[in-house]
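Attaching the record inline, Q. Sequence:
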Amino acid sequence: MKTYLINKKAYRDYEIADKYTAGIKLSGHEVKSIVEGKGNLKGSYVKIIKEIPLLIGFDLPKYSKSGEVFGFDSKRDRELLLNKNEIDKISRDINQKGYTAFPLKIISEKNLMKLTIGVGRGKKKASMKQDLIAKQQDLETKRLQKERNSYSNTQR
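Structure, as predicted:
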C-alpha cells in the first residue's frame, strides 16, 4: 500500500470520528497524474447526492506527458465507490450539525486508487492550540532524551 497524496490540513483542522476507504473513478491520465505526485486535496470535501458519493473540489492537473485531452476539467466532481451501508452511515453522520466528510489521503491498494475519507467536525481554535503545544512538548522531550543518551554514552 503506497500513499500518494495526503491532506495534512484535514488532520490539523478536524476531529476525525470515523474513517472509510472508497474506490475512486479516474481516467487513465488522471491516475498517472496522481502517481506523478500532482493533485491537491485541500479544500475538497465529500457530498452525497442522490445516493451517489462525490468528491468535490479535488484539483487534479493534467498528466505532464499526455497530449491534448478533449474536455478535460481538473476540478470535476469524481464519483466514489462505496457500498450502500457505508453510504447510509456517512449520510447520517454528515446530516448531524457540525459534521462533514473530507478526504484524508489517496493510496494505491492492489493496483487500485483508493481514497480514505474522514468524517468529523472542525476543531476549535483553543483545541488546535492545545494540540500544537502538546506536539512541541513531545518533540522537546524526545530531543532532551536523545541528548541525555548521547551524553551518557560519551561518559563511558
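The first helix runs from residue 8 to 13. The CA atoms of residues 29 and 67 lie 10 Å apart.

More tomorrow.
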